[in-house]
Design goal:
Helix content: 25-40%
Strand content: 15-25%
Family: Belongs to the phosphofructokinase type A (PFKA) family.
Largest sheet: 9 strands, mixed
Bound molecules: adenosine-5'-triphosphate, magnesium ion
Keywords: ATP-binding, Glycolysis, Kinase, Magnesium, Metal-binding, Nucleotide-binding, Transferase
Number of strands: 17
InterPro entries: ATP_PFK, PFKA, Phosphofructokinase_dom, PKF_sf, PyroP-dep_PFK_TP0108
Shape: elongated
GO molecular function, one term: metal ion binding
Protein name: ATP-dependent 6-phosphofructokinase
CATH architecture of the largest domain: 3-Layer(aba) Sandwich
Number of domains: 2
Length: 438
C-alpha cells in the first residue's frame, strides 16, 4: 500500500498517540469561555475529512462515519498537562526557511501568556544542542519581542545525527514536559524517535512538530510555512533574469531555484513572475537536446529565452554523486552550473549573452511575508494546543484551510510532489508554452 494513496489510507494511519487522560481544565476559559457556552473547543467527535471529493467518498463507504478523517487542530477544554507546571522547550533543525522566528515567537507568547506556562527553554543549534550538554536559553516574551522581523532562527540550527537516548536524558535533566521541534522531514523522523524513546522509558513528554520545508514537500498539508515567501522572493530573481535576457541580443536568463525533489518553488515562481520559457523540475525529466532545440527556437522567435531550473531537476544528466551532508542526505549535482556550460557549448554557433542567477541563500534567509507570518502564528498556536492536550509524535498543518494534527509516521511516509498530470503543472505549461516533453 502507498500511504500517499487517498484510497488506501485508514483510520489507524490517522490516529494521534496520547500521553494519557485529559483531566485538567484549560486556563483559556477567560479567552474562549467555559465548555458549555463555547464553540471554540475541539471535541472528541470533531474530525476533518481526508478527502473532499464526493466521487472518492462515495466509492469507499456506505456511512460517512467510515470516511477517514484527521484529528482537528485547536484548543481542548480538558488538558493532559497542568500548564502552570509545564516546562516547554523549542528546537529548530535543518536548513533555514522564512518564518522560523515567527514560529518561535508565537510558541513562546502562546505558552506564556495564553496558557501561563512556567518556563520555555530554547535549545541551541538543532538536535546538537540537545545532545552536547550545553545550557538552553530561557525564552521570555521580552526576548522574542522583535524576532519575527528577522530571517533565520535565533536558536540556530544544525544537521547531523544525534543519539535519541542522550537527547531524552537532556530533556529529563531540564524537566521538559513538551518539546516543539521545528524542522523538515529529517527533523520529524528524529522527533518520532524521541517520542518513541520517551515512551519506552514511560516518560510523559509530548513531542510536537511544526513542519518546516521551503520546498513544500511535506504530504497531506496545503503548504508548509515559508513557502509562499520563498516563491515570492524567487520570482524577483526570475524577473531580473527576464529583464536581462530581453535587453540583450539573444539574451538567455538562467535561474536556479530550490527544490531538491519537488518543483513547487520553481512552478509557483514561474506563475508569479511570468515571462519564463522553460521551467525544469525534478518530477519531469528533460533531455539536453530538447532544451537546446527549445531555447534555439525561442531565440529565433522572440530574441531571448528564460530558463528556470529547480536544483533537483535533470540529475540524470550529471555525473552521479555519492557525497552526503552531515544528516545523510545525498548531495545533488549542480544542475545550474551544468546547464550554464551546456547552453554555452550547445549554442556556440550563435551570438548570445547568458546571465546565470542562483538566489538560493538570499531566498532562505528573508523574513516571512504577511501570509507566512499569519500561518506561522497559527501553526504555533495549534502546536501548543496539541501538546497541552498530551498529543505526541505528531505535527500540525493546515489541510484545505483547516488545522489538523497528523501522526509524524504518516507525514514522513511519503513526500509531496508536483503531479506532472495535475493542474499546477498544467498551469505552468500553459504559462511558459513549453512542450509537454523536452
Ligand atoms: P531540511 O528541510 O532543511 O532538509 P530537515 O529537517 O530534513 O530539514 P536534516 O538535516 O535532514 O534536515 O535533519 C535535521 C536533523 O534531524 C538532523 O540533526 C538529523 O540528524 C536529524 N535526522 C535526520 N533524519 C533522521 C532520522 N531518520 N532519524 C533521526 N534523526 C534524523
Ligand atoms: Mg530534509
Amino acid at each position: 500500500m502507498q500511504l500517499s494513496d487517498l484510497q488506501a489510507i485508514t483510520h489507524e494511519d490517522l490516529l494521534i498517540t496520547r500521553l494519557g487522560q485529559r483531566t485538567v481544565d484549560t486556563p483559556l476559559q477567560d479567552l474562549l469561555g467555559n465548555r458549555q457556552e463555547s464553540v471554540h473547543y475541539v471535541t472528541e467527535t470533531d474530525r476533518v475529512l481526508v478527502d473532499d471529493t464526493l466521487g472518492i467518498a462515495k466509492n469507499r463507504v456506505t456511512h460517512t462515519a467510515d470516511l477517514p478523517a484527521f484529528n482537528p487542530g485547536g484548543p481542548r477544554a480538558k488538558l493532559f498537562f497542568d500548564p502552570s507546571e509545564v516546562t516547554a522547550a523549542i528546537v529548530t533543525c535543518g536548513g533555514l526557511c522564512p518564518g522560523l522566528n515567527n514560529v518561535i515567537r508565537a510558541l513562546v507568547l502562546h505558552l506564556k501568556h495564553a496558557y501561563g506556562c512556567r518556563d520555555v527553554l530554547g535549545f541551541k543549534n538543532g538536535y546538537q544542542g540537545l545532545a552536547d550538554g550545553s545550557d538552553p536559553v530561557r525564552l521570555t516574551p521580552d526576548l522574542v519581542r522583535d524576532i519575527h522581523n528577522r530571517g533565520g532562527t535565533i536558536l540556530g540550527t544544525s544537521r547531523g545525527n544525534q543519539d535519541p537516548a542522550t537527547m531524552i536524558d537532556t530533556l529529563v535533566r531540564h524537566k521538559v514536559d513538551m518539546l516543539f521541534v521545528v524542522g523538515g522531514d529529517g527533523t520529524l523522523r528524529g522527533a518520532a524517535r524521541l517520542a518513541a524513546e520517551a515512551n519506552r522509558r514511560g516518560l510523559p513528554i509530548a513531542v510536537v512538530g511544526v513542519p518546516k520545508t521551503i520546498d513544500n514537500d511535506i504530504p497531506w498539508i496545503d503548504h508548509s510555512f515559508g513557502f509562499q515567501t520563498a516563491y515570492a522572493r524567487a520570482a524577483e530573481s526570475i524577473t531580473a533574469a527576464h529583464v536581462e535576457a530581453s535587453s540583450g541580443v539573444n539574451g538567455i536568463g538562467l535561474v536556479k531555484l530550490m527544490g531538491r525533489h519537488s518543483g513547487f518553488i520553481a512552478a509557483h515562481a514561474t506563475l508569479v513572475a511570468q515571462g519564463v520559457d522553460f521551467t525544469l523540475i525534478p518530477e519531469v525529466p528533460f533531455t539536453l537536446d530538447g532544451l537546446l532545440a527549445g531555447v534555439r527556437k525561442k531565440l529565433a522567435d522572440q530574441g531571448h529565452a528564460v530558463v528556470v531550473v529547480a536544483e533537483g531537476a535533470g540529475q540524470n544528466l550529471l555525473p552521479a554523486s555519492t557525497a552526503t551532508d552531515p544528516s545523510g542526505n545525498r548531495k545533488l549535482g549542480d544542475v545550474g552550473a551544468f546547464l550554464r556550460g551546456a547552453l554555452t557549448d550547445g549554442l556556440s554557433d550563435l551570438p548570445f549573452s547568458l546571465r546565470y542567477i542562483d538566489p538560493g541563500y538570499a531566498i532562505r534567509s528573508v523574513p516571512a511575508n504577511a501570509f507566512d507570518a499569519v500561518y506561522c502564528t497559527r501553526l504555533a498556536q495549534a502546536a501548543t494546543h496539541a501538546a497541552m492536550a498530551g498529543f505526541t509524535s505528531m505535527m500540525v498543518g493546515s489541510r484545505r484551510g483547516r488545522f489538523i494534527n497528523m501522526p509524524i509516521k504518516l507525514a514522513t511516509a511519503t513526500s509531496n510532489h508536483v503531479d506532472p498530470y495535475g493542474d499546477l503543472w498544467m498551469a505552468v505549461l500553459e504559462t511558459t508554452g513549453q512542450p509537454l516533453t523536452l
